[in-house]
Amino acid sequence: MNSSTRATLGVRQAQKLKTRQALLDAALKLLEEQSLSSLGLREVTRVVGVAPAAFYRHFRDMAELGVALVEESLGSLHVMIRAVLAEQQEAEEVIDRSVEAVADHVRRHPAHVRFVARERHGGVRAVREAIAAELARFGDEVAAALAAQEVSRGWSAEDVRMLAGLYVDHLVMTASAFVEASAEEPEEERVIADTARRQLRLISLGRRHWRAA
Amino acid sequence: MNSSTRATLGVRQAQKLKTRQALLDAALKLLEEQSLSSLGLREVTRVVGVAPAAFYRHFRDMAELGVALVEESLGSLHVMIRAVLAEQQEAEEVIDRSVEAVADHVRRHPAHVRFVARERHGGVRAVREAIAAELARFGDEVAAALAAQEVSRGWSAEDVRMLAGLYVDHLVMTASAFVEASAEEPEEERVIADTARRQLRLISLGRRHWRAA
DNA sequence: TGTACATCAGTGAACGCGCGTTCACTGATGTAC
DNA sequence: TGTACATCAGTGAACGCGCGTTCACTGATGTAC
Known about the structure:
The structure is a homodimer.
Chain A: H1 3-30, H2 41-48, H3 62-86, H4 91-108, H5 110-119, H6 125-147, H7 157-181, H8 186-208
Helix pairs in contact in A: 1-2, 3-4, 3-5, 3-6, 4-5, 4-7, 4-8, 5-7, 6-7, 7-8
Chain A binds a DNA duplex through helix 1 and helix 2.
């Protein structure tokens, strides 16, 4: 905790936040090897080094912790997406930068990416819904950026949103592929990046030849 | 059990297969609401109505049952994919038929589709690997079919495989979307089908304009 | 066909274990004056 | 600044419960003659 946080929140609240974060970190780490619906409250508190009952000072149950993890995981991804969208460059260059940004993001936050991939269709409804809602927001944001581009002149809003969905799905897919490969040979990472780039190039080509209906 | 099965296997083996199938069916049903890594052996045997220890006559553990479910789930999908690939028609028509086939498959086997979507990135390694291997086979098969088409003249094998991967990923994505929507309003199903068709149309357009490198 | 023995799918009781949740508590931090 | 009281994050013991796994068993089915 830095001094400004302490000054704003007081020692007690700062300590509480610290414990909360430790619970989130411990859970995220444990979730590399299992899924949320099988993660135990006691497992998490044991790693953190607090009594099991302390968990309830921060979360009602594991589902609530999961939703907090979704916010944390997709928050950082959101930042990355915004950065890529902000750049205005040649299509080819945007593709290269995007794939590199995704690869980099996965390298920096492998556990977050794995968590989202795993729980996107996982066994905890509240978490699935939180992920779906956040990915839908990404889609809207990408759609807004696409609509502003010259290539989209004459496109219907639905078509732009459809394309944005394709990009977001592709992003999640690529990130999942990276995170699952990372444990194996580094060569595989290059293959995934290369495939992702070619797929994006093909989509970009389809985009340019789309007949505005 | 029909008479030919009984004649081939004998009463005892036929009964054993029946129990095994009952275990698979019960597990699949329970997995609509949870994930494999949290599914208990006792839960499954309780639904079937056999003693917990009977489970071990059929599977070493839940992971092994999960792998059997992967075979069952992707086997039927495999049949569907083959049927679609076998048809030789106009691109537009192939798209419509494919999306309808996927929608139909999800309507017929919702639990299988949900299972694959959930466990594709789930917490059980053996099951993830079984799904990945089977989807890779689908990709190869789709690639072979694409390569045989006129449009692919001059394409490298890698590019064809890249496109096949895009199709398989899109199929899984669309199936997941259908199965998650089904519980809600039927209108949503139409929207998903419509989006899927337009995305496939855009990809098809990109394919036609791909410069053979 | 009938008999004697072998196989083996499923039983039911037992086990030790870790789980989620509750509760009254403690003691450091916060607040009012 | 100092004191008296309030707050509340974290404790530790206790609970009942369902879990996975083991084991010797039973009795229907299969096999050999």
